[in-house]
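Let us begin with a simple case.
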Amino acid sequence: MSNLDNILEKIHADAENEAKVILDQANREKEAILAEKKKQGEDDYHRILKKAEEEAKVAYEKVKSKNSLKSRDRILAKEEEVVDAVLGRVKDQLKAMDSQSFIGYLKKALAQVDDSQAYSLRVPEKYYQEVQKENLPVRLLEDFVDQGFVLSSGNIIYNGSFDNLIESKKDELEKMVSDQLFEK
């Protein structure tokens, strides 16, 4: 072989070695980049998964809370219906009160009024004769009311109707009935 062939072969061998070194280095860089990207992808995957789990948990809690509120509202509405029915029965029982009980209720109310002689009294027609027999210290009118009584003097009117009585004590009565029926 000639010197030139030796030189060419050496150049060729050196070029192959250098190409192999460059390829090895490129492969290592490629593997490093792939490993880094794989790790970055896995990190992104875990971050996205964690975020999705947190969002799902928040959404679940919102739905759970919303359903709990709806359930509570339904229960409260049903309890209110029951309480209203009980108060309706109370009104009915008051309206069906016998004469002696009505007169007792009336006397108790009149005892709380100063100068009751200055007042006019209206009662339901069904109690009129029994109230008249009591000779109460008021002027009894033959102008009847549906239920309860009305006591008036000039511009002062005391509405003793059972509806008014129940309405004025409604909050207290609702709480009392609710506490007894639904023990909270």
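The second case is a distinct protein. As before, the sequence precedes its structure tokens.
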Amino acid sequence: MPVPLAPYPTSPVSFAQSPANGAQGQLVCLGCRNLLLYPAGATTVCCAVCNAVTAVPPPGAEMAQLVCGGCHTLLMYIRGATSVQCSCCHTINLALEANQIAHVNCGNCRMLLMYQYGAQSVKCAICNFVTSIGVSIPFVSHV
């Protein structure tokens, strides 16, 4: 009987390792989170424990990660995806690239908040305060 792994991979790079010629690759089952081995050239893997079918990332795919907004599970996905569905709670998470997000401190509790670039305000998940995102005016020094 397989031993269940931690609820998320311990190392981001080990989520999916593409196999070399004739070798086996490995990835984490989307259903039960067990480590699955697959032969080179496979496009999907069916888990023997839970029968979930997990897609094999294309060779050389760059992976990214985010924390699920619903259950706080670490999710791994192929970089460039616009949304990621959590296999634990089924929440659909918006996947933003680094150049699409910005940071601001909460106007009440000073918690660092992350928001989508262009938003007019952001609500703090800790204290529920809504912080307005102001347009910054560059400081010009007159000498």
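The two ends are 75 Å apart (CA to CA). The mean pLDDT is 77.
Keep these points in mind for the review questions at the end of the chapter.
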